[in-house]
Amino acid sequence: MSNDPLIIFDTTLRDGEQSPGASMTLEEKVRIAKMLEQLRVDVIEAGFPVASPGDFNAVKAVADVIKDSSICGLSRALDKDIEAAGEALKNAVAPRIHTFIATSPIHMREKLNMQPDDVVENAIRAVKKARQYTDDVEFSAEDAGRSEPEFLFRIVEAAINAGATTINIPDTVGYTMPHQFGDLIRQLIEQVPNSDKAIFSTHCHNDLGLAVGNSLAGVLNGARQVECTINGLGERAGNAALEEIVMAVRTRQDVFPCDTRIDTTHIVPTSRMLSRITGFPVQPNKAIVGKNAFAHESGIHQDGVLKSRETYEIMRAQDVGWSDNQIVLGKHSGRNAVKTRLKELGFEFESEVALNSAFKRFKALADKKHEVFDEDLLVIVSQTSEKEKKAIYSLVFSEVCSETGETPEAHVTIEVEGKEMNAKATGGGPVDAVFKAIESVVNSNTELKLYSVNNITSGTDSQGEVTVQLEHDGKIVYGHGAHTDIVIASAKAYIDALNKQASVNDRSHPQHNSI
């Protein structure tokens, strides 16, 4: 069995960000891109440059700093889109332009209002224009899963003749069954005369929970690129999860005639960073990266694993980045020990100022906790990066009085653009009181849609990790906060969400449900 390279195309920064509430700042996109580079992702789709100035600048920033991965910008089959992508990518070591147009009857008729001949003509023109900026051009047939095969054969052949080097076949609405999707990839490779001149790719959505299954069916039928996201992040039900694709192929080399170049030990740290930045927690039973992915409670399972790990574990937890270190560091640990352990986890500091800030937070936490775990360190890094950002709101002081039989009262001091403001409020509980006190200062007119608390590690001294979801004028943002005091963690999460809400730009994509 041959061992072909399987290209991993990560679209967390583009399609993943289209998940409601998952908007990221330029700095956050660069941080994630650097982690994806350490993960050894082949292609990073950094954004949709024409969508907004923020998207353009983010793609440019990622293209400027990433050296070991190709950087891709998405564009519709329009001159202005391709020109924006070309400009944003001009400093990339290995730039790729990804242009697309819809090919299903319903999309051509209802959305594009175009005839099939016109769609083919536009696709050819777009690919040729993209080739003016780079030799690495990808063409996608949007909603390929519901397109007529004969028309797909025709437009794919034309796109390859025009210069496309990668042909992406998206299951845009997650409608296709694995056997159908695999058969479609096989037919394209067999029926398109010039198919040997391009790499075929999958891009599957998870509306029916089949994104990974469809992607793998495509690989088994000749696709040699998979488009996916960390944690399966994406609009609606999400995209194919990178970690599941990579580990399925790596674990079942008896089935797959290919493998990736991914450094799997960075999977869990990357997953956690994304979760922290977006505020989307990973469900405990999520494959590969969930807390319970390698946990065993059943006595029979525990007995089997103790006798031989392979009885119930088909992968090693350490291979995907789970640490078997229990006590990592403590209050007597030095600055270099913290720096070294974080480097082992995939984090390197760009300045002494950032390292000093992280170490200061580590010491403050170590005074509260006897044992500091890897999970705590990952939170510290995220908090350090957040602290460095210029925030409109920040928590200065919080005091809550909660007594049996009495109405809880909160007193907070919030810094608003450099000016400290005090407020008091009562509520149904201590968290409710704190939120109302904060609101009396900021008057955000947001609606709290979700409030969630999880422990980061075990023990009563564990940091509590709070996630809040706020909605304002139809826009959703998530906030994250962590502290050994749940009420303070809640206040920090609420303020984090308020800062994101205040900084959200109008990111209405020209083609929102793209690819």
TrEMBL record:
Cited Gene3D superfamilies: 1.10.238.260, 3.30.160.270, Aldolase class I
Q: What class of enzyme is it?
A: transferase
The pathway that the record names for this protein is: Amino-acid biosynthesis; L-leucine biosynthesis; L-leucine from 3-methyl-2-oxobutanoate: step 1/4
The alphabetical list of record keywords is:
Acyltransferase, Amino-acid biosynthesis, Branched-chain amino acid biosynthesis, Cytoplasm, Leucine biosynthesis, Manganese, Metal-binding, Transferase
Q: Name one Pfam family in it.
A: HCS_D2
Give the SMART domains listed for this entry: LeuA_dimer
For molecular function, the Gene Ontology terms on record are:
2-isopropylmalate synthase activity; acetyl-CoA C-acetyltransferase activity; manganese ion binding
* Sequence segments annotated as region (Regulatory domain): 394-515
Q: Can you tell me where the transmembrane regions are? A: none
Give any single GO term for biological process: L-leucine biosynthetic process
Residues annotated to bind Mn(2+): D15, H203, H205, N239
Cited InterPro entries: 2-IPM_HCS-like, 2-isopropylmalate_synth_dimer, AIPM/Hcit_synth_CS, Aldolase_TIM, LeuA/HCS_post-cat, LeuA_allosteric_dom_sf, LeuA_bact_synth, PYR_CT
* Keyword Isomerase among record annotations: no
Residue span, Pyruvate carboxyltransferase domain: 6-268
Which reaction does this chain catalyze?
Answer: 3-methyl-2-oxobutanoate + acetyl-CoA + H2O = (2S)-2-isopropylmalate + CoA + H(+)
As cofactor, the record names: Mn(2+)
CC terms in the record's Gene Ontology section: cytosol
Q: Which family is it part of?
A: Belongs to the alpha-IPM synthase/homocitrate synthase family. LeuA type 1 subfamily.
The subunit field of the Swiss-Prot or TrEMBL record says: Homodimer.
PANTHER family linked: 2-ISOPROPYLMALATE SYNTHASE 1, CHLOROPLASTIC-RELATED, HOMOCITRATE SYNTHASE-RELATED
Summarizing the function annotation, the protein's role is: Catalyzes the condensation of the acetyl group of acetyl-CoA with 3-methyl-2-oxobutanoate (2-ketoisovalerate) to form 3-carboxy-3-hydroxy-4-methylpentanoate (2-isopropylmalate).
- What protein name is recorded for this chain? 2-isopropylmalate synthase
Q: Write the gene name.
A: leuA
